[in-house]
Amino acid sequence: MLPHLGSSGLQARFDLRSRPWPQVLRPAKRRELRRGLVAKALGPSPEVRAGLEVVQGSSVGRAGLWRRALLLLLSASALGLRLNAAAWGAGVTACTRANQWAHALGLLGEISARGVRLDTLGTQTGVFACMIAGRWEQGMHLLSGLAWQSMEPLARSCFSPLLMDCQQRGNLGGEIALMKLLGRMGSQGGDSGLSLAALAASAAELRLLSAARQRPGAEVALARSLLFRPQPGAQVLFASGLAGRATLGKLVQVARNGKAPNLGSPYGKELQVLRQILDTVPQGNPEALCQAMPAFSKEASDRGAAKLKASILCAAMLGAPAGGSVLEVGGYCGYSAIRMAWSCPTATIASLEIDPVHVMVARILIAFAGLDSAISVWTGHSKDLIPRLALKKDEPGFLSAVFFDTKGSRYHEELAALSDCGALKPGAVVVAENVLKPGAPVFLWQVVLGKAFATQALEVQESDWPPDDWMSVSAMLPPFSTMRSLGPWDASEPPLRTLAVC
């Protein structure tokens, strides 16, 4: 039984029909008889049946049932009933949905002590509870028992929130440990896993160097450890640069001498592109890298669309007001960020990406291009990262340009989040991808019909969509600096009938 159950008054609030369970079960000598007595003790009480439904996962959405679920789980386990991973995971979910983080963590401890391995859904919920409580070690322990076949959804739903939390808290050790665990899990899958393990190891070293540049005292020790020879303090940046080139050099050798990744395995496509870049493009040449990345696409229309989109994006960035940063929402593997940094050498770019493997690929390609001082890549969802990034800035209006390349159905929410925290400079440029297909109707409604933006839509041919798609380029007009100052027509969502017609 969890140690904090009694102090929280759970037993007093949930009466198992006033039955003394130990006395009822003491005469039973066979497990089958115990199960029968348990069922008889529970009886047909609606409250008990509702609690059992929570435990079985059929009513986890009802937050008020968490007390019943918790007591039933622990009582049934104490009575010798074997509960499966789904039942334990449902109990964790019931606690987390009720914001009972301490009970969820206690239940995770019971699960670990009993050697139960949660399924993917239970693990995702448990990781979220660990993230809220700042227990990244416990979350990493949960992840270590999962199979590599579900790597891609796990990376986004489980690894990403923990990595984001560690990065935002400045927990570099936790971030590195999670990256290496992700690589080890991927190594269970064969050829692609081996490449994923090498990717994680190199990305971890580069992340260490990037963080150490902001901590002068730590950078000397780190450079020494990576180069295996002492360096005087005056040569800190030189030493870390050597260490970074050595790290990339090792990965280049792996790319050239190792077996090609299996395209059908998790992240096989991304690893194959990374391998071809490292094998064919000279290090420190962002122009050659930008020209090479679209060339590795199988479809000629993909290559043409990528170049046209990059040209539109860079032209829009050049028209943004000076003195601010650029935010990319949906960085994928870093191509757009590298292209923007190459075209606008004075720009500083923050790229947000939810998939941690894509983050690692992007960081390696950015470092390989020699642009790691201009581009920072953040792991996590935009709805979580945008407010946190805004808090790190002392003055409002720190963004000159924004590039949306995620789901169009979220563009208006992301724009509102940026506007509400005062992140956009007057005259800021907002570029959005794929606003026609799959589409961003609410976003287009606001930037086209509203008074705060001047907007143009540009046609782009996509291979996956025979008709043309659109990229939108919007400039915020004075005197608007936030959408709070807009009228109801400007910032409201379009009527449902209008959306249906669109």
UniProtKB/TrEMBL annotation:
The keyword S-adenosyl-L-methionine applies. Its EC number is 2.1.1.6. Gene3D superfamilies: Tetratricopeptide repeat domain (1.25.40.10), Vaccinia Virus protein VP39 (3.40.50.150). GO terms for biological process: catecholamine metabolic process; methylation. It comes from the Eukaryota. One of its GO terms (molecular function) is catechol O-methyltransferase activity. Belongs to the class I-like SAM-binding methyltransferase superfamily. Cation-dependent O-methyltransferase family. This is catechol O-methyltransferase.
